[in-house]
Amino acid sequence: MTLKNFQNEFYKSSSSYSEEQLYDEFLARLISLHIHQREFNIDCLIERYFSMSSLSKFEQLDRLKGWLDSFRPLSPVIVEELKKLYDVQFTYNSNAIEGNTLTQSETELVLSKGITVGGKTLIEHLEVIGHKDAIDYVESLSQQKQALGEWEIKQIHNLILRKIAPEEAGRY
Hints:
Elements: H1 3-13, H2 19-37, H3 42-51, H4 54-69, H5 76-97, H6 104-113, H7 122-144, H8 150-161
């Protein structure tokens, strides 16, 4: 199956799925397409990567970008699901670096359901919420197409810390 056939078949059948089913079906078909094109072996890929020249790596990136671009335009449902996934992963990883002990699954629960997780501190939950607020703010700034200044940077800092350390939020 070619990528174009994959896209056409997927988009034709997508109207009969719920949002969650649509996302799961998209990933399943994408994985199936990749697996059927060639056998996947992570060790070979890693070894190959380290032996590639910089030019080869850029060429590979261009091919991968072309492959990703062939799926465009993504449906709004898939874009929304990818954004949720990205927000959870970005928030989890950023907070984990700072010592937050919430797991990625727990981070997703805090963001999607607004519930607290037993055995975790209130500060850890507030870090997750503040980080997500900052992501949303940065995304809104990117839509305005204006340069970031000191005030915007302080606002990002404020959003992250205002519920945790209000006396430090937005200051340096």
